[in-house]
């Protein structure tokens, strides 16, 4: 599950190396448009599995993913195992860790439950808190948000007007800090963060072909450096 | 680090979460491709 130029580069390189005999597919991110709040991580993995098995109904399957996509690949492998399918390879690339931001989600959930706010409001609250935290903490997030907003401001309000640069800057920062939920909802990376916060994966069991013994593999816990 | 069959195998690539996928992408991709090719060889043999 990738996006943009990196996805195209990876797809082409991998396809060249694996050769025409080995089918290779990239899964598009789950479509969240029109949903009040996202499905669970497990439900997204199940939907991807359905897509994958419509192309190749039986294993062995070779799965890989990066960051949150690695967690999804893990969950898909776990579900395939439950379905009695063989996973030939599970390649996790710098995986995000399950349960990340779970404290934030629990606090927001508890607060919203007190006020009898629904799942949609909890989801939007999570996106808002996450945006404010990232804006204050990360320079690259701050600059990209400012740049995006600056473009809109110039188009909407500042065209043809003289303005004080420092006032615009402060005003812009305040506006950028304010969460624009309708935009945050469109970023599937944000949505995956919401889901991962509530994802507690079961262990995958691996059976050794030589000894026949069954072992538990550790769930992904690291990455995000 | 190579692990025994049925266990987890770990590779440490240069860079961090971002630069590993930009600056060091060829290195990272090389590892991925090699790892992907290995189970195919096992299946075919």
Quick summary:
The complex is a heterodimer of chains A (225) and B (45). Chain A has 225 residues and is mainly alpha-helical. Chain A has helices at 4-18, 41-55, 68-82, 102-114, 119-137, 139-158, 165-177, 181-184, 188-196, and strands at residues 61-66, 87-93, 204-207, 214-217.
Strand order, main sheet of chain A: write it out: 1-2
| Number of structural domains of chain A | 2
How many strands of chain B? 0
Average pLDDT number of chain B: 71
How do the helices and strands line up, and which of them pair or pack?
The complex is a heterodimer of chains A (225) and B (45).
Chain A: H1 4-18, H2 41-55, E1 61-66, H3 68-82, E2 87-93, H4 102-114, H5 119-137, H6 139-158, H7 165-177, H8 181-184, H9 188-196, E3 204-207, E4 214-217
Helix pairs in contact in A: 2-3, 4-5, 5-6, 6-7
Chain B: H1 25-44
Describe the structure.
The complex is a heterodimer of chains A (225) and B (45). With 225 residues, chain A is mostly helical. Chain A has helices at residues 4-18, 41-55, 68-82, 102-114, 119-137, 139-158, 165-177, 181-184, 188-196, and strands at 61-66, 87-93, 204-207, 214-217. In chain A, helix 6 (139-158) crosses helix 7 (165-177). In chain A, 23% of the residues are buried. Mean pLDDT of chain A is 78; it is low at 162-166 and 221-225. With 45 residues, chain B is an all-alpha fold. The longest helix of chain B is centred in the C-terminal third of the chain and has 20 residues, at 25-44. Chain B is flat and about 30 Å long. The chains are: A mainly alpha (225), B mainly alpha (45). Chain A binds chain B through residues 6, 9-10, 13-14, 17-18, 22, 60, 62, 64, 66-67, 88-89, 91, 93-94, 206-210, 213, 215, 217-218, 223-225, and chain B through 4-8, 16-17, 20-22, 25, 28-29, 32-33, 35-40, 43.
């Amino acid at each position: 599950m990738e996006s943009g130029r990196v996805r195209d580069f990876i797809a082409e390189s991998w396809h060249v190396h694996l050769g025409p005999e080995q089918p290779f597919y990239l899964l598009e991110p789950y479509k969240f448009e029109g949903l009040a709040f996202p499905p669970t991580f497990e439900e997204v993995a199940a939907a991807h599995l359905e897509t994958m098995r419509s192309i190749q109904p039986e294993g062995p399957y070779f799965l890989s993913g990066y960051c949150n996509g690695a967690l999804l690949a893990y969950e898909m492998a776990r579900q395939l195992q439950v379905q009695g399918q063989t996973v030939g390879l599970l390649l996790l690339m710098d995986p995000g860790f399950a349960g990340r931001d779970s404290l934030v989600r629990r606090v927001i959930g508890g607060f919203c439950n007190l006020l009898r706010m629904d799942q949609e409001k909890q989801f939007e609250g999570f996106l808002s808190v996450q945006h404010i935290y990232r804006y204050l903490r990360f320079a690259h997030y701050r600059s990209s948000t400012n740049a995006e907003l600056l473009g809109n401001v110039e188009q909407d309000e500042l065209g043809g007007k003289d303005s004080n640069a420092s006032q615009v800057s402060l005003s812009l920062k305040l506006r950028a800090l304010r969460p624009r939920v309708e935009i945050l909802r469109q970023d599937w990376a944000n949505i995956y963060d919401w889901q991962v916060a509530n994802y507690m994966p079961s262990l995958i069991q691996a059976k050794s072909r030589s000894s026949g013994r069954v072992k538990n593999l550790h769930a992904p816990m690291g990455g995000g450096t | 680090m190579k692990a025994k069959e049925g266990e987890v195998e770990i590779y440490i690539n240069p860079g961090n979460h971002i630069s590993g996928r930009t600056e060091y992408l060829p290195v990272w991709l090389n590892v991925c491709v090699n790892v992907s090719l290995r189970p195919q060889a096992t299946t075919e043999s």
